[in-house]
Amino acid sequence: MSLIKSISGIRGTIGGRSGDNLTPLDIVKFTAAFGSMMLAENSTGNKKIVVGRDGRISGAMVNNLVTNTLVGLGIDVVDLGLSTTPTVEVAVKAEGAIGGIIITASHNPKEWNALKLLNSEGEFISADWGKKVLELAETADFNYASVDKLGTVIADDTYLQKHIDAILAYPLVNKEAIAAKNFKVVVDAVNSTGATYVPALLKALGVEQVIVLNEEVNGKFAHNPEPLPQHLTQLTNEVIKQKADLGIAVDPDVDRLALVCEDGSMFGEEYTLVAVADYVLQHKKGNTVSNMSSTKALKEITLKHGGEYFPSSVGEVNVVEKMKAHNAVIGGEGNGGIIVPDFHYGRDALIGIALFLSHLAGHKNGVKSLRSNYPDYFISKNKIELEKSIDVVTLFKKIEDKYKKNPINTEDGIKIEFDNDWVHLRTSNTEPIIRIYAESDFESKANNIATKLMQDIKEFIA
To answer: Is Phosphoprotein a UniProt keyword of this protein (predicted)?
Structure first.
């Protein structure tokens, strides 16, 4: 069991002892710290915070603790109930709220839950604010409201439609072209809120043939909820069985998007962003950003369209910061996370679906043919569990010294380039591990590079 406190929020497993897991006491403490911080940073007198959750088993329990803690601080809560991460982000800005809390552990299994923390722009809080929240939570020095100044809770179920309406109004979403194609789509909703939001969006886009797998929103995930190929065999089989044009998979909070071609093959989570960026850059010239663990195919597509590509540290807040710095017109992460800045600065599978279908509708052939337009690079994704005693800074310095003749980026862990290949080592924000990602034009080469660095790690920590 585990409790992970980071600058972007708190994540842990439900049950067990407080301080070691995500227990009611921990939920109240960190909610109170965040709420107190947002009140202190706000000078307008606004006391509104938006809250929403995914379909996890523990979601209702955590939601009650969060909303009532905020009420106890004198904060008015706009409770979206079952929602998505991008929808809460949209709602924070639309409501003019001082912040937001999304109750979701994203792709983690059902025993996990988390509090994702948003600022008044509907974006993840900065590292500085996150640090302050963690420090305040440890002191537990909170000033709660008197009985006459308690906050209120307003349930608001209108944001599903508001989010969809905003997507339909986005200039590059071509509803007419999508509807004219009469697509048949299979959706794997992994027993969370994608079961509500994705079919509603598809119907609004004119997609009438929608088959939904794992559509009961009960948090009892039918498979590992991370939308990786090994977890999506049911979807790939159903796409073939239904003779569908496309398969769509989202994670429990609907900020990651994975696609399946009509023959049941994976489009590739790294290429979700590449394809959408290709479409956006055809209509809007500009720069792009992805984190440095993402495929170099985005850089190549960007240069082809006359823009510049900029890598960022891993983490949505870092991608957004780099996008703002370089006026990127599209960006995201290679895990299927798409950020459309003039829509909102957050990973959003829903706008991603609409833009991908608009792109596909303008393509003469199917999804498999569209995928063939992009290079075949392979990323080998690996991880090594860490003991608490491991000094990662010293470990990475040893690796840096060993490969000092190669181009190296130490902005986020250590990234080493080998001619046209690369490997990126970094500690996870959400798990006690080192991630080792390597990319090459052949799968065997990528695996060999990753294996070599994993051997280096084991050698240096032995």
So the answer is: yes
